[in-house]
Amino acid sequence: MEEILSQVFGIWFLIGAALVFFMQAGFAMVEAGFTRAKNAGNIIMKNLMDFCLGTVAFLILGYSILCGQDVAGFIGWGENPLFNFTGTDWSSLVFNLVFCATAATIVSGAMAERTKFISYCIYSFVISLIVYPVEAHWVWGGGWLAQWGFHDFAGSAAIHFVGGLTALIGAKILGPRIGKFDKEGNPRGIPGHNITIGALGCFILWFGWYGFNGAAAVNSIQLSTIFATTTIAPAIATVTCMIYTWVRYGKPDVSMCLNASLAGLVCVTAGCDYIDAFGAAIEGVASGLIVIFGVWLLDYKLKIDDPVGAVAVHMMNGILGTVMVGLLACGTDSSGYEVLGLFYGGGFDLLIKQCVGLLAIGAWTAITMYITFKVIDATIGLRVSAHEEIVGLDSTEHGLESAYAGFAMRSDVVGLLEDDDIDLSEYDIPAADLEVASSTPAVDVEDAIPTAVLPGYGEMSKVEIITKLEKFDALKKSLNAIGIGGMTVTQVSGCGVQKGQTQYYRGAKVNMELLPKLKVEVVVSDIPVAKVVKAAKKALYTGNMGDGKIFVYNVENVIRISSGDTGKAALQYVE
User: Fold this and answer.
1) Alpha carbons 69 and 141: distance in angstroms, whole number
2) In degrees rounded to 5, what are phi and psi of residue 491?
């Protein structure tokens, strides 16, 4: 029976590795959804290369450093998977490889939308080649932290703290995206282009996290309790974040709640085998608040631009989760350990070890990654030009016109150039190169022909209705009911300033932006204009801002091309 169970959990070990690999898709979706459409292809490419370049680096050197024979508690050595196929523990290699790729890909989101692709590839190779393997050996490869009693079951410190700290350093050196801060230094919300994709990524990550935390379980009881704590912490973190943002901003913030789910997962990762349900709940509440604080801290105090919240989610909650082990470890029967945290009578011993471990891992990561980024910046450069950033990295870095071929996506190029609140003087932007001619007015406003506003109750009138896309079916049905059989429908973009309606994205105010709208035009003669207006209002009215507007114009004449009929006759159709 023991042999059978050993085989079963050996297979589960590899299934868990596959789940962790699938988390790469989750990271790609979260990062793409939380950033702008013009960079979606670049985000996908970076996440793909994190794993592929990481595999090369891990085969060459990383695996030997992490899992080789321990040398003075600092590094491992002696493994050669490329030339010793039969002598390599491939189960261990694949398992540790997918974790290594996770540490690397965390950084992508924080440095999104402004990093040179070649520079990112070099960083990704370096962290997988030596930076991550060294500190992971200390924790899991028999190194000095493991020998001393430091506990990080699945990687709050070894993976998430390392990835989040690297993200902080990289984002700081890069500087913020153009338009993230106004002239006074106040943060501006830059909403991601597809929150649905971001949510899909969050669910994929949560699903993969059961393998992330549970793959190393050695019996069914331990596995089930790990699944329990891995469920409780993120759920309560999300509820906590929802309540806080609802109270603070008047609406529950979707993107922040998605971040909170991931924050709870990161936090519980270190001690998922050490804590009970109550401990997981405490970690959930703490992580749900910490992620909100982290986003605020970077935006309002540190002035560091992190588009997806990677630092707040991974670094800050990696720290929190590692420290929580020293406080909440309760010696559960499922863990097989008797080590207790401070709150369970274990004293300060474990807490001190956890804190020292964090300091050591943080120092190693900060020094090596700062040097790496600085060397890259001084040689080939870390950041793209202002022109490339504004146009988008999909086209400038990959020759990809759009990641959404066949879909019309709005651009923020003109808005950035014309926004008086953004200081562009430091960026040396060649406006003529930005290809915005199609958005430039043919004449100056002063030279434009003034428009006369008429009451619109002549012999023939045009009624123009601007409303939301989703209201079309209701509007069409309402107009058909009063005898309107023909209309012209156009998709347009528009915006307006609503008094008292301040919008927030991740705690930062969002400036007025163009939104997709629908323009419906009908020309009437026999049907009274007032009847058309009444029908439109009945279909569109909700009492909220954004219901739309109705414009009425006099029509001088109508000519039907097919028959030559003019005036009212041109509007009459014979059955």
Assistant:
1) 8
2) -85, 125
Number of H helices, E strands in the chain: 20, 8
Residue holding tokens 């991550």?
132
C-beta separation of 535 from 446 below 8 A: no
CA distance 556 to 508: 49
Which residue is listed with tokens 């699944």?
227
Arithmetic mean of pLDDT, 448-475: 71
Measured between alpha carbons, how far is 524 from 456 in angstroms, rounded to an integer? 11
Burial class (CB in 10 A: 0-12, 13-18, 19+), 350: buried
CA distance 430 to 23: 40
Lateral strand order in the sheet of 461-467: 488-494, 515-524, 461-467, 549-554
Structure tokens at 259: 């971040």
Structure tokens at 480: 């058909």
**Which amino acid makes up residue 86?**
T
**Core vs surface per residue 145-174: b (16+ CB within 10 A) or e:** bbeeebbbbbbbbbbbbbbbbbbbbbbbbb
pTM: 0.80
Amino acid at 420: D
- Looking at residue 180, its amino acid is K
Give the tens place of pLDDT for each residue, 61-105: 999 999 999 999 999 999 999 999 999 999 999 999 999 999 999
In this predicted structure, what is the pLDDT of residue 416? 59
